[in-house]
Amino acid sequence: MRIPARSVCTAIRDDIVSGVFERGSRLTEEQLARRYGVSRVPVREALRTLESEGFVVTRRHAGACVAEPTEREAADLLEIRLLLEPLGAARAAQRRTEAHLKVLRGLVRLGQDRARRGQGEDLRSLGAWFHETLAQACGSPGLTSLLTQLRHKIAWMYAVELPARPVEAWAEHGAIVDAVARGDAERARALTALHAERTTGAHRLRIPTGVRPSQHPVNTVGDRI
User: Which of 16, 90, 187, 203 has CB 3.0 to 4.6 Å from 179, enough for a Cys bridge?
Assistant: First the structure.
């Protein structure tokens, strides 16, 4: 069975974000095909996609390499986040479905419960799921794609500290969902802008690390974009 390039792209991106592939390291089609147990065709397609996203660069005499973003480029991502996330929330207030609201409300309930219990690692994954769902609810494939790429890049370049007051942070999530549910685009935009600004200070630039062991074969990776 042919493994889709999307799955290969997800696997390579995950390994770049987690530091399995060091910044600046060379990525050969043969190496990646062997690592993920696929042919070189989906690897080639995946590398093109990752280059368009900014995770990979093509260098003369070296071929595809993991990109090496500068501190300024990393700082720009946080500024872009302050612009795009509020826009996504405003669009979600206008275009969300009942299915989106059901997931968002469920995540808020779980987040508030875990925050009261002090279960930090659960909060990290729930927060990522919340923002992914909010991005999907905006009803714009282009904006959803931009928000998704932005989250991946920020996760690659920054370590994010858990909020000092997680109960308050999840109360902010709940207020955003209430505004989205009411169709109040301007309030959803304002609350998300405030939340994004408050959490910007929790981002710490990562120090590039060496290559780590493989996490998973490609055929066990989900098709997350």
Answer: 187
pLDDT for res 214: 42
Please list the helix, strand and coil fractions of the chain in percent, rounded to the nearest 5, in that order.
Answer: 65, 5, 25
Q: What is the Cα–Cα distance from 92 to 135, expressed in whole angstroms?
A: 8
The model's pTM: 0.81
* Pairing mode, strands 63-66 and 158-160: unpaired
Number of Cβ within 10 Å of residue 221's Cβ equals: 21
| pLDDT tens-digit readout, 143-162 | 999 999 999 999 999 988 87
Kindly tell me the burial class for residue 176, based on how many C-beta atoms sit within 10 Å of its own C-beta (0-12, 13-18, 19 or more).
Answer: buried
Residues near 34 by beta carbon (within 8 Å), at least 6 away in sequence? none
Facing residues of 26 across strands?
65
Cα 155–161–167 angle (5° rounding)?
115
What single letter denotes the amino acid at residue 106? G
Question: Quick one: tokens of 185?
Answer: 């685009």
